[in-house]
């Protein structure tokens, strides 16, 4: 994504593309806008994240973000947990932690305000991804949703794991990934 953004905005002096650990974010000069898609759930410490983002923005700079929020992929996660607990897969998941932090709007608003943002808007909306077959869903899960979980599995077990999660969802009458999106708009306060 960084490469595509750099290519897309090459030569545009108004745009600078940064690639850093957001919990250690440092910028040479403050920016007008920070835009993020699907990043925040991978960061456990949102309070620190929002402080770092506020420090990178000019006063009155804007934060625009969209990511998984509270309840995101809940049905998918339930199916994953069932499969993870099967004898065939259980040993690969012992001691592994859930990689996601799906926050709710109110907690997000409070954290943003504590970090120096004002005019905060945060809300959830459903945006399910539907699939035409169990196989199509299994491929999507393997490629997009289950990456962290598949890392600990032998290569030969990765697709079977994804296929079993998809089959569990299909048994519930769902060929969908149940996305719940958290949307955030915020403005850095002048005094932050």
Walk me through what this model shows.
It is a single chain. The protein is of the alpha+beta class and 192 residues long. It has a single domain (2-188), classed as Vaccinia Virus protein VP39 (Rossmann fold, 3-Layer(aba) Sandwich). It is built from eight helices and six strands. α3 packs across α8 and α6 (134-145) packs across α8 (155-171).
Task: Looking at this protein, list some descriptive labels.
4-stranded mixed β-sheet; 192 residues; Rossmann fold; single chain
CATH topology: Rossmann fold
Residues in helices, as a percent range: 40-55%
State the separation between the terminal residues, measured CA to CA. Answer: 30 Å
Topology, number of strands: 6
Radius of gyration: 19 Å
Please list the strands of the largest sheet in the order they lie side by side: 1-2-6-3
- Beta-strand portion reads 15-25%
Q: So, CATH architecture?
A: 3-Layer(aba) Sandwich
Gross geometry: elongated
Entry summary:
With 192 residues, the protein is α+β, with helices and mostly antiparallel strands. It contains eight helices and six strands; from the N terminus they run H-E-H-E-H-H-H-E-E-H-H-H-E-E. It is 41% helix and 22% strand.
Chart the SSEs and their pairings.
Elements (H helix, E strand, L loop, with lengths): L1 H7 L22 E7 L8 H11 E12 L5 H11 L2 H7 L11 H10 L2 E10 L2 E2 L3 H12 L1 H4 L4 H17 L4 E2 L2 E9 L4
Parallel strand pairs: 1-2
Antiparallel strand pairs: 2-6, 3-6, 4-5
Helix pairs in contact: 2-5, 3-8, 6-8
């Amino acid at each position: 994504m960084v490469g595509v953004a750099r290519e897309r905005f090459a030569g545009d002096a108004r745009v600078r593309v940064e690639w850093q650990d957001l919990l250690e974010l440092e910028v040479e000069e403050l920016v007008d806008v920070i835009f993020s898609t699907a990043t925040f759930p991978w960061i456990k410490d949102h309070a620190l994240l929002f402080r770092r983002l506020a420090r990178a923005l000019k006063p009155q700079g804007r934060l625009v973000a969209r990511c998984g929020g509270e309840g995101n992929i809940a049905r998918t996660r339930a199916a994953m947990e069932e499969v993870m607990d099967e004898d065939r897969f259980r040993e690969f998941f012992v001691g592994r932690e859930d990689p996601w932090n799906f926050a709710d709007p109110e907690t997000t608003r409070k954290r943003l305000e504590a970090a120096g943002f004002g005019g905060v808007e945060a809300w959830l909306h459903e945006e399910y991804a539907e699939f035409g077959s169990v196989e199509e869903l299994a491929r999507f899960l393997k490629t997009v949703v289950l990456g962290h979980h598949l890392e600990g599995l032998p290569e030969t077990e990765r697709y079977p794991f994804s296929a079993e999660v998809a089959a569990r969802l299909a048994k519930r009458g769902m060929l969908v990934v149940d996305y719940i999106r958290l949307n955030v708009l915020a403005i850095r306060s002048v005094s932050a």
